[in-house]
Amino acid sequence: MHGLINRAVQAFVISTYGEKRWNDIMDESGLGFTEFEAMLVYPEDQSSRMLRAVEKKLERPLPEILEDVGTFLVSNPQVEALRRLLRFGGVNYVDFLHSLDDLPDRARLAVSDLRLPGLELVEQAPGQFDLLCQPGVPGYAQVLMGVLRAMADDYGALVILDQTGTQDGIEVISITLIESEFAEGRAFDLGAHSL
Fold it and tell me: Using alpha carbons only, how large is the chain's radius of gyration in Å?
């Protein structure tokens, strides 16, 4: 698994639970190191061992933790660059949803060796969508659930999300847009500001 993904889990745990909890998790995993390098690719077994240790030490189901990681990736100021990448998808939540088909390619533009599974948005009816998540990265759909939830808040949209199962290995996330302008969204500027 790409180190950027492992590093995201690491950043979430440290930010939410503290450095000591992360070190306990890495001790439990038995990998012999405490930090993932963002630009390396790790064997699947090492990533799996880390995730099993996260689940055990946090005493929460892994899908729930991964959804929280997705929320963290959008809402935490430490990772503002990802939010910016996602917000370039459109001026409202529906535009953003339609841009998800291109997300793996946009991610590859930012990090050339990051291979995210394909996504396909299917509009079932006005305001009702299915997001089809191709297999390839374990927990990808759960992280996307958190991203979708946080981006709805970011745009000020009211949505209902449900992971409705798997069809031929493809995980399906059902998205129902209740109201596109439910609340005031977070401010977003196209130009990045330096301090």
Answer: 17
∠83-85-88 over CA atoms, to 5°?
A: 105
Distances (CA, A) of 28 to 24, 48, 150: 6, 12, 30
Summarize pLDDT for 97-153 with one digit per residue, the tens: 999 999 888 888 878 788 889 999 999 999 999 999 999 888 999 999 999 999 999
How buried is 171 (Cβ within 10 angstroms: 0-12 exposed, 13-18 middle, 19+ buried)? buried
To the question of pTM greater than 0.70 for the whole model, the response is: yes
Tell me if 157 sits within 8 A of 179, measured CB to CB.
yes
What is the enclosing helix (H) or strand (E) of 9? helix 3-17
Task: Catalogue the E-assigned strands of the chain.
Answer: 119-125, 128-133, 158-167, 170-179
